[in-house]
Write a structure and sequence with these properties.
Elements lengths: L11 E5 L6 E9 L3 E6 L4 E5 L3 E3 L7 E5 L6 E9 L5 E6 L4 E5 L3 E2 L2
Antiparallel strand pairs: 1-2, 1-5, 2-3, 3-4, 6-7, 6-10, 7-8, 8-9
Length: 109
């Protein structure tokens, strides 16, 4: 996270679950300068170092991965609609299928 971005409890964020390759949406619960407690949209919680947390920047046109309801697998998609708080999205998969997805079933690379 850049030094000029101040995240506050309640802010929507993306965080690297267990320090992995993917960024998952959630809400900042608390921060102490070096660590940030995250409540992920899927209900999981963890504390991450500040460099593993960034503001949620998804918007129409953002490229993400989403779980397709057809088989439960992750697939590349583009956001075509998003609600005001970023918790419900309409995504368009690369094969042309479009569906509504809760943010809990989406991630960024």
């Amino acid at each position: 996270m850049s030094d000029d971005t101040q995240l506050l409890p309640g802010d929507r964020v993306l965080a690297r679950w267990q320090g992995g390759d993917f960024w998952f949406p959630g809400k900042l619960v608390r921060a102490n300068g070096e660590q940030m407690a995250i409540q992920y949209d899927d209900g999981m919680q963890e504390t991450r170092p500040t460099e593993d947390v960034r503001p949620l920047d998804w918007r129409v046109g953002s490229r993400i991965d989403a779980v397709w309801t057809g088989n439960g697998g992750w697939y590349a998609a583009t956001i075509v609609e998003i609600n005001d708080d970023g918790t419900m999205l309409t995504v368009l998969y690369e094969d042309g299928i479009q569906e509504g997805r809760a943010s809990a079933f989406c991630r960024a690379s």
